[in-house]
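FORM 7B: Structural annotation worksheet

SECTION A. Query
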Amino acid sequence: MLHLFGHVNMFVPVLLTLAALMLQPLRDADGNERTGLSFGARNRIFILLLVNALLFSVLGGALLCRYLLPMYPLVLIVAVTTFRQRVPYWHALAVLSGVAFVAGLFVNPPYGFAPEDNLMYAHVVRLHEAAIAQLTNLYPGATVLSAWPVTDDLKRPELGYVKEPWDVWAIDDFSEAQIERAAAEPGRYSAALVFSTKFDPPPLVVLGPRSQVLDERYFGLHHDLPPEVIARRLNGTVTWSARYKGMWVGVLRFNRQFEARADEDLLSPTKPTAVRNVRPYRL
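SECTION B. Predicted structure
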């Protein structure tokens, strides 16, 4: 409901509509009362909005604006027809709603959201481009630990980030659980490109652990660890990082030692073969 009636500054036309409903309908020059949407049309719109909200509430999934694109015009139709029916200078309210939407393209909301919801995504793309360029210069040929979409950026040259495909080892995100998974298999990667998967400021309202569990289960809620913490958990160091308005990206290197293991038969007392120059090597 927040994404439908409040996100990308949709709260502006919604609140203006509620205020307009407190006014009496206007009359035209001929004395007839202005009409808005017909009863049937208004009900069909409300049913579509309700079905959409219930459908995504049951099915779950990430909370992304693109899933609501067919619904936003319906909300705006109800708002503008209500303005016209009840507000003398209704054009001004329609313009104000449009200005609020345009502002939402540039100003981030005070809560977590996917960067693709506004023009923040252009800056995220530039951050990823810079990080991949650093990765290419510092660790060519490395097997890279990362998450989507960077895993696709590295594997698919046609996307324009790399000239040749890289070997990658993918995790879902950079939450604590996924970093623990990566820490359990250190031999699967030799470098890492980590990044914030969403804009994630401190929450304005905390609804309790039960709500958080439900959000994690049905809507993919997670909190990415910062690059310095990820490097510490994975026994690595941050060699390059950048930040922009709450979004960040980092390149990590690892300095691990692995003892080469000889075949048990070579160490058998019945076989005098000696194993020489068994030295640790570094990734």
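SECTION C. Observations
The mean pLDDT is 83. The first strand starts at residue 143 and ends at 147.

SECTION D. Sign-off
Analyst initials: ____
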